[in-house]
Amino acid sequence: MTECVSEPTMTRGRAVHRRAISEPEPAESAKSSDDARLEAAEPRAAMITVCRVDQLPPGEAVRVAAVDPPIAVFHTEDGEFYAVDDTCTHQDASLADGWLEGCTVECPLHASCFDLRTGRPSGPPATTPIRTYPVVVEDGVIRVAYGEVAC
């Protein structure tokens, strides 16, 4: 199992603690009902195992760099999980290093804010949305349907 390593970011308000993952876990051979539903909707979607729920506390993010483009998975204070492209559409900055407030992440470079549910920026300097991906939590494991764009 890949171990999450905490990398605290600089704090300004409510900073995200970024957790780096070197590679996704291999897909399990047994398919869950969520897997079947996701694969039926988008046959090219790959289920990427991110980490266990207890490895990603509320208010933190994990960057999965083993896929291209990298994705960031956020655990909000209200217990929800969201997966988005990790790179800001304005400039090349990791959103996993940004600031999380509710369902919004602020880019650490030029303060562009993105809604984690829709990927839409709230205003300049970013004008292009980021992609969002479905997240499945099953048996205490966080998995992302990478390749299936939710929004």
TrEMBL record:
UniProt keyword annotation of RNA-binding present: no
Species, as recorded: Kutzneria buriramensis
Alphabetically ordered keywords of this record: 2Fe-2S, Iron, Iron-sulfur, Metal-binding
Entry superkingdom: Bacteria
Coiled-coil positions: none
Record PROSITE patterns: RIESKE
Pfam families in the record: Rieske (PF00355)
Gene Ontology MF term list: 2 iron, 2 sulfur cluster binding; metal ion binding; monooxygenase activity; oxidoreductase activity, acting on paired donors, with incorporation or reduction of molecular oxygen
Region of interest (Disordered), ranges: 1-39
Annotated ranges, domain Rieske: 48-144
Protein name, as recorded: Nitrite reductase/ring-hydroxylating ferredoxin subunit
Keyword Membrane: no
Database matches in CDD domains: Rieske_RO_ferredoxin (cd03528)
